[in-house]
Amino acid sequence: MSEISDNDLDSRLAARIQALRIDRGWTLDDLAAQSGLSRATCSRVERGETSPTAAQLGRLCSALRLTMSQLLSPLDAPVAEIVRRTQQSLWTDPETGFRRRIVSPPSRDLAIEMIESELPSGADIIYDAPPLAGMEQHIWMLSGALDFSHADTAHHLEAGDCLRLHLWGRTRFQVPGAEPARYLVAIARKS
Hints:
Elements: H1 6-23, H2 28-35, H3 39-46, H4 54-64, H5 68-72, E1 90-92, E2 99-102, E3 112-119, E4 124-127, E5 136-143, E6 145-150, E7 153-158, E8 162-166, E9 171-174, E10 181-188
Antiparallel strand pairs: 1-2, 2-3, 3-10, 4-9, 5-8, 5-10, 6-7, 6-9
Helix pairs in contact: 2-3
C-alpha cells in the first residue's frame, strides 16, 4: 500500500471542511468571518480547487477549534493500535513545501497526537492562533535548526533539543540554515 497522496488528502480535506461548516450551521460567509480568510478562498478550498497553505489551514483549524490532525483525518474511524507509515496521512503545504505527517491516529478519546514535520530551508510560517487555546505542545528537533517564537519569546532549536509550552497566541516557525528542519511535534489537548 502506498502513502495517502496529496490529491486524496486534499479531496478529503475539502469534503471535511464543508461537512464541518454545514454541521455548525455556518454559511461560507460565517466560515470566512471566523477564520479571517476570504469567502472566495474558503469556497475554493471546499471545492478542492486549491490546497490551503499551512497558515490558511491554521486559521481554519482555529475557527473550527480542531487540531490540524483532527481536521486532516476522520475522527469517527476506529482507533488503531498501530498505524503503518504507509497508512499515515502526509500533507504538503503548496506555498512553502512544509511536509506534515500524522504519525498517531487522531481520536476524540485520545489526548495526545504526534506529528512528524519537515520544513524546508528558508521557510517561514506564522500561525495567528492555536486551534485550542492553552494546548500543550512539545517540539523535539530531529535534524537541522528551527527558530520558533511564541508571543514575545524566541527559541533557537537544534537537533536533540526539545521545547515544551502551552500555546496561547501567535507562533512562528523559521528555518535559518541551509538544511531543512525535521522535528516531531507532540500535542496534548486540554481536557
